Fold this protein.
Amino acid sequence: MKRAASLLALGILSLALLMGCAAPYTELPLQTPMPMVTPEPTPEPVLPSDSSVEIAAYDRGALPLSLKTESFPGELYEKMLAAASAGEEELDLSAENADEAAVKAARDYLLGRGLVVSLSDILYEKGILSFSYDSADAAALQAGNAAFDEEAARILSFSVRAGMSKLECALSLYQSLSQLIELQPPAESSNTPLYAAIVEKKADFSGLAKAYGFLLDQFGIENLLVQADDGSYVWNIITIDQISYHVDLSFAASLEKGQTLRYFGMSDEQARAILGYGEWSGSDGLSDIKPPICDSARFEALAKSTKGDADFAAHALYFLGYEGLEDVPVRLSLADGEIASPEMGKTAQFACLDGRLYFIAKEDGLLHVYDPEEEWSGPLEGELSATVLLRRGDELLYAQEEGGELQKLLIP
């Protein structure tokens, strides 16, 4: 009897313990209901779309993004630039208590930029800046600086349109400068490389790279001057949407008369293969900056292309030389990276304008037009023959024979 009572008591105690252990888990409600999670499929990778450029007034004092910081004396630089551009001999800074390090930074950048005609040196002593020029003719200096501003503003208006993305802006400036500027050996101009490129339309590789960087600065597009490890060559790296690309205008200017896209948007691997330099260093014109990694394959299809052009109205590129289709332009969409081959005949030369492709057909030597919206192509009215066709800005130019005079193509 006692044994039965003990067993019963033990069973009741065990049950109580079990209930006590389970109660905190089963009886306490969750503070927040657990949602049902349905896994979503991984989205397909898409190419970045950058914001549109802001069309602003030309600014001679535009700075690279890396110098738009509190560490660089921007206001002092603008004062020095204005005084030098006007041909002033002195600038009194005694009332400003200018820091010598700040003066040196502004001085070094102004001299290195090469904006001012004949400016050879700037000295600073007892609060006074003294400017030295290679020419004593102040009127000629002012006229030269005015010519620089006029030509720079003209190239910008010639190249950039409202609605362009920053990438398209960089691409259009690449095309314009490589078409407009004649590549020449160093030191053939008495002016600075930047001035010679913008005004004289003749420059070495340094002048082309500096001109490109200066014009990119007008739109706040991040860029660096890049120098080969042996110091023998200079080009650019641009960064848009946190993706960096090599851009070389000197090779572009010397190939296909500037009508090529091959040297725009190169990765590090492509730059080594195409330009032939294994290592490089970067600069913003004042300080050394470690170049960013360029590993995007966005424009790898252009690496073996020959002639190319951009259709900014359709946000696309056309180029020759893609995977055995050497005689037919293929289309690379800037929106999604898709590559397509238009239904058109073999092409000798072509150019893009306002969403259409104009080309010289190999079969008859006549100027034709291809409309991708209607998927239609045919000869232009008048059946014009041509051997040269190119686009400059918003104009199509053609010549009926190689070396002949370029004429504007009148489009009905």
